[in-house]
Design brief:
Elements lengths: L4 H11 L12 H12 L7 H5 L3 E3 L6 E12 L5 E11 L3 E3 L3 H10 L2 E2 L1 H16 L3 E10 H4 L10 E8 H4 L1 H10 L5
Parallel strand pairs: 2-5
Antiparallel strand pairs: 1-4, 2-3, 3-6, 6-7
Bound molecules: zinc ion (ZN).
Zinc ion (ZN) binds next to loops.
Length: 186
């Protein structure tokens, strides 16, 4: 027999030495299961679904940047949150994405169990595939609760990851322009 997600949380409470019958915890397994399902809702989404055809013809071949996209994810090693910002840029070749879609792509991959490196790569690959851009750049800066609350307890360290594809990889001028626009270059 398999346990439901709330039943598993009940077992976790017992494993922690808690009494799942005490008043404050009675509804906790249900609530925790619901919260976790929400935090992982990206598993039930696909890029095509999220983009939903919002690709528009455009002559613009200048860099498009969406900066400071709020990001909430869970690290797959400890199931603890990591929280930060994503900056995404691409250079269109005839098609531009609807404004909110980049943020929704970020969210879809963030709402799964992740490590920051893979999250960065998955966002870049998805934007590349959808837009067929001449280049895609993704930078993520995030603080990891698994570092801040346990282990080394480093409260102020931020992890930075980046993936550069196409023109952002080949041209240091393009890369510099992007980093400057998101305030990441000296
Ligand atoms: Zn972790």
């Amino acid at each position: 027999m398999t346990l439901s997600l709330p039943q598993h949380y009940r077992e976790i409470l017992k494993g922690l030495g808690e009494d799942p019958e005490r008043e404050g915890l009675l509804d906790t397994p249900q609530r925790a299961a619901k919260a976790m399902q929400y935090l992982c809702h990206g598993y039930s989404q696909s890029v095509d679904e999220v983009v939903n055809g919002a690709l528009f013809a455009s002559d613009n071949d200048e860099m498009v940047i969406v900066a400071d996209i709020e990001l909430y994810s869970l690290c797959e090693h400890h199931l603890l949150p990591f929280i930060g910002k994503a900056h995404v840029a691409y250079i269109p070749t005839g098609k531009v994405l609807g404004l909110s879609k980049i943020a929704r792509i970020v969210d879809m991959f963030a709402r799964r169990l992740q490590i920051q490196e893979n999250l960065t790569r998955e966002i870049a690959d998805a934007v590349q595939r959808v837009t067929q851009a001449a280049g895609v750049a993704v930078v993520i800066e995030a603080r990891h609760m698994c570092m801040m609350m346990r282990g080394v307890e480093k409260q102020n360290s931020t992890m930075h990851t980046s993936v550069m594809l196409g023109a952002f990889r080949d041209s240091s001028t393009t890369r510099q322009e992007f980093l400057q626009l998101i305030g990441r270059s000296k």
